[in-house]
Write a structure and sequence with these properties.
This protein is α/β, with parallel strands linked by helices and 252 residues long. The protein is 28% helix and 23% strand. The chain is built from 8 helices and 11 strands. It has helices at 36-46, 60-66, 84-89, 114-126, 167-170, 184-191, 207-214, 236-248, and strands at 7-13, 30-31, 34-35, 51-56, 73-77, 101-106, 131-137, 146-149, 156-160, 174-183, 219-223. The strands form 3 sheets. It has a 7-stranded mixed β-sheet. The protein has a two-stranded antiparallel ribbon with strand order 2-3. A two-stranded antiparallel sheet has the order 8-9. It is globular and about 45 Å long.
Length: 252
């Protein structure tokens, strides 16, 4: 069986992106002439992940219109932006009959390649992990959640958001990209245990890693070969940075 056909992607696309200084939804921002969300959808499709759920919220009509003409899409609305864990939870009804791998991707991270998505799914499936996260090594990891590993065997213990991290944890250069695979059989039960007692009062999806560890479930991690792939767009400066990188890539 093609393992990618037993994968459904949940693409997080509900945010406004206040730092973009735009009235449009962040995922509608154009990079190299196409909305960020389109880059992500296309890369997933090229990784043979055809079933895609788009989590919409802010100006949802504009996001839905970006997706016009595409098949195999489902839209789930996150009426209040209460965090990434809550964003995945609004897809529970749409996925109630689905058994397989749920891949969570960010609609504002347009650089993750089809090859990297494929590698993540393959690692997750072959290792029989409850969750597999995509990480990256960054010289300047400011703003990203840090991957905290066991000093004994190097396995992933938890992800700490920067706002909640100690000085030692902030020194860690391996970061969470916000892209994961979860096995559906553990996902919903785990999400029910995610709380919001943190600096943002939000339901963080990364908290699932610690919850799964506490249940002695297996956690996998795939480190990207190039940290550029992990870059998300949070500001006009980020957009300019990635636009310049793409402009320098020779056209095929």
């Amino acid at each position: 069986m093609n393992i990618h056909s037993n994968t459904t992607a949940v693409i997080l696309a509900a945010g406004k992106g206040t730092r973009m200084k735009s009235e449009h939804p962040k995922v509608a921002t154009a990079l190299a002439g196409r909305p960020l969300l389109v880059h992500v959808m296309d890369h997933l499709k090229n990784a043979n992940v055809n079933n895609q759920i788009i989590v919409v919220g802010y100006k949802k009509e504009e996001v839905i219109s970006i997706c016009e003409g595409r098949s195999d899409l489902t839209f789930c609305e996150q009426k209040e932006q209460l965090g990434t864990g809550h964003a995945v939870l609004v897809c529970k009804d749409a996925l109630k009959d689905f058994q397989g791998t749920v891949l969570v991707a960010c609609g504002d991270a347009p650089m993750i390649s089809p090859t990297s998505f494929r590698s993540l799914i393959e690692l997750h499936t072959s290792g029989s992990y409850a969750a597999t996260l995509m990480s990256a090594e960054m010289d300047k990891p400011q703003g990203y959640g840090r991957i905290i590993r066991s000093s004994d065997d190097g396995s992933v213990l938890r992800i700490v958001e920067e706002k909640d991290a100690s000085p030692e944890e902030k020194a860690v250069k391996e970061v969470n990209t916000g892209t994961y695979c979860f096995s559906s059989e553990y996902l919903w039960e785990g999400l029910a245990e995610v709380g919001n007692s943190n600096a943002q009062n939000e339901y963080y999806l990364p908290d699932l890693i610690k919850i799964f560890r506490n249940k002695n479930l297996k956690i996998g991690a795939m480190k990207l070969k190039s940290s550029i792939e992990s870059y998300g767009i949070n500001s006009p400066q980020d957009l300019e940075f990635l636009s310049n990188i793409l402009a320098a890539v020779p056209k095929k």
